[in-house]
Specification:
Chain lengths: ~300, ~250
């Protein structure tokens, strides 16, 4: 049985007459990783603040594991771990001290605090940093401490606002692995504007634009939208278009400015093999063949652009 | 939970030199005045004063020590309270507390308690200094306790106001200056209305309610005044933080 960990219904937030977030609805089940996408100022952070009880919604409700955030904020907050955009760190403390305080405030029983701090440090790769002052840590390590305080009490839902900002590529890979790992036992919501990141780690994607959800579905739907029945073909001695069109399944050919050929084929056909065979037997000088996917960026732009037009 | 926040505040005071420096400086000032007080006692009481005007060592030393303490605290408390909320607002660490399973009342009470605990240490040192006179003389412990209770209530009121002012701004320095001005105003209110002691404004003066304590008198009206003062400003702080959540 899948259990719902987060239910947001009709979330709306009005800032001075302007609706920063409008009627956002979604649910999240246990073990899912939800990616929150959107351009700057789309309302990602506002939505997250409402989910974590840092901001009161103007309309609508948030339920965490069935507990209403507005009626029972303390119980609901106990189930959430939150890393805001700016990691909230007390710079005068060491990593150990800070994580101990975080554990205590999140109701980790005093017997388990040491263990919880240890586990959180291990998961975030901070074992060596325990006695360092947070002030002296690099941006990447600060970000890790931020994540560590969000997962220290083993919450049902982990909410991370742009967790990979300011990290170097290796750290980003580590953090992504960590988030994927978290997705096993917790539900994770993360916001980002790095599109490949979403594709790598999320099961579900939501695209928010101008305060409204413009896309809400599984990552596969988004991936399918990218496949467009096209192949990119690189031939050093390209034949005429008609010759290519003779190959069964191919419905269109165009030459791109780069010299590559974009070959469109009918839905359900897989003409790649015939193409290669023809290229070899006719000495067309094949040097490249790959599916022509629209990038996630294009899908994203399409979705946000559609909304603009509407 | 309140205790946990208070612990965090205390720890953060002592994590920086701030806490230690303030503690050392206060102890130096009070120690000096204590010494001067004893010195003066020996000089004036040994013959210059007529026997019927002589006061005991407790009152002589205690009065100068505790009245200077109320004045010194006027500068100290705003310096200590200024960071409590404004700094968290500036560093954006308030989110950390808001996302934890804590009510706003717990957060505010915890911060208040942390500061008051620190100041209690200072007052405890003063009480210990005064009590040490008991080795050579017969000390009036009633007088000392009344003064200690009075000073403690005064300092707690300062802290409550300091916490509130700190919640209004992002700049700790602004908070310090603002709470100093307000406290100073409240403290000297009865000087302005000295001609008319029954004036209601005199009643609002902090000094007016601290005076009975410094004479060794415990009056429920003064207790009520200080308690109401503290509750009022802590409630205002909670309201201010709640407005953050509502208005964003």
């Amino acid at each position: 049985m899948t259990t719902l960990t987060v239910e947001a219904s009709d979330l709306t937030r009005i800032y001075g007459g302007r609706e920063a977030v409008r009627d956002v609805n979604f649910t999240l089940s246990k073990g899912e990783v939800l990616g929150f996408l959107g351009p700057n100022g789309a309302g990602k952070s506002t939505t997250m603040k409402m989910l974590t009880g840092n901001l009161a919604p103007s309309r609508g409700s948030v339920k965490v594991c069935g507990i209403d955030m507005i009626d029972n904020p303390k119980e609901a907050k106990a189930l959430i771990g939150y890393l805001p955009e700016e990691p909230p760190l007390y710079k005068e403390f060491t990593v150990d001290e800070f994580l101990t305080i975080a554990a205590r405030l999140h109701r980790v029983s005093s017997r388990h605090i040491k263990k919880a701090v240890q586990v959180a440090k291990e998961r975030c790769g901070l074992t060596e940093m325990g006695s360092r002052l947070i002030e002296n840590l690099s941006k990447g390590y600060k970000q890790r401490v931020g994540i560590a305080q969000a997962i220290i009490h083993n919450p049902m839902v982990v909410i991370l606002d742009e967790p990979t900002v300011g990290l170097d590529p290796i750290q980003i890979r580590d953090i992504r692995a960590l988030i994927k790992d978290l997705g096993g036992e917790h539900s994770v919501i993360l916001s980002t504007h790095i599109l490949p990141e979403v594709e790598m780690i999320c099961d579900h994607v939501q695209i928010i634009h101008k305060g409204e959800l413009v896309f809400n579905g599984s990552i596969d739907v988004l991936k399918n939208q990218r496949n467009s029945n096209k192949l990119l073909l690189g031939l050093s001695k390209p034949p005429s278009h008609d010759e290519l069109l003779k190959i069964p399944g191919i419905v269109g050919v165009e030459t791109l400015p780069t010299g590559l050929l974009r070959v469109q084929y009918a839905v359900g056909e897989a003409p790649a093999e015939q193409l290669v065979q023809a290229a070899v037997s006719n000495h067309w000088g094949l040097y490249r063949i790959n599916p022509d996917q629209t990038t996630l960026e294009e899908v994203f732009v399409q979705l946000t652009f559609q909304d603009l037009a509407a | 939970m309140i205790i946990n926040i208070a612990r965090k505040e205390l720890k953060s005071l002592f994590a920086s030199p701030m806490g230690w420096v303030v503690l050392a400086l206060l102890q130096f000032v009070f120690g000096t005045f204590f010494l001067i007080g004893i010195d003066q006692y020996f000089q004036t009481m040994s013959g210059a004063v007529r026997p019927e005007l002589r006061v005991g060592v407790t009152e002589s030393v205690g009065h100068s020590l505790f009245s200077i303490a109320s004045f010194v605290m006027l500068f100290t408390v705003p310096l200590l309270s200024m960071r409590l909320i404004s700094e968290e607002r500036r560093q954006q660490t308030l989110t950390f507390l808001f996302s934890a399973p804590l009510s706003l009342i717990e957060i505010v009470l915890g911060k208040f308690l942390g500061l008051v605990t620190f100041l209690t240490i200072v007052i405890a040192f003063m009480a210990a200094m005064m009590s040490s006179l008991n080795l050579w003389a017969d000390v009036d412990f009633g007088y000392i306790s009344a003064n200690v209770i009075g000073l403690w209530l005064l300092v707690a009121s300062f802290s409550a106001l300091g916490v509130y002012v700190s919640s209004l701004t992002q700049q700790p320095v602004v908070a310090a200056i603002l709470s100093f001005i307000i406290l100073f105003g409240l403290l000297i209110l009865d000087y302005f209305f000295a001609g008319d002691p029954s004036n209601t404004m005199t009643y609002l003066s902090l000094m007016h309610h601290f005076d009975p304590f410094s004479r060794g008198l415990l009056d429920t009206r003064d207790f009520a005044y200080f308690l109401l003062f503290i509750i009022t400003f802590l409630t205002l702080t909670v309201r201010r933080l709640d407005a953050d959540r509502l208005r964003g």
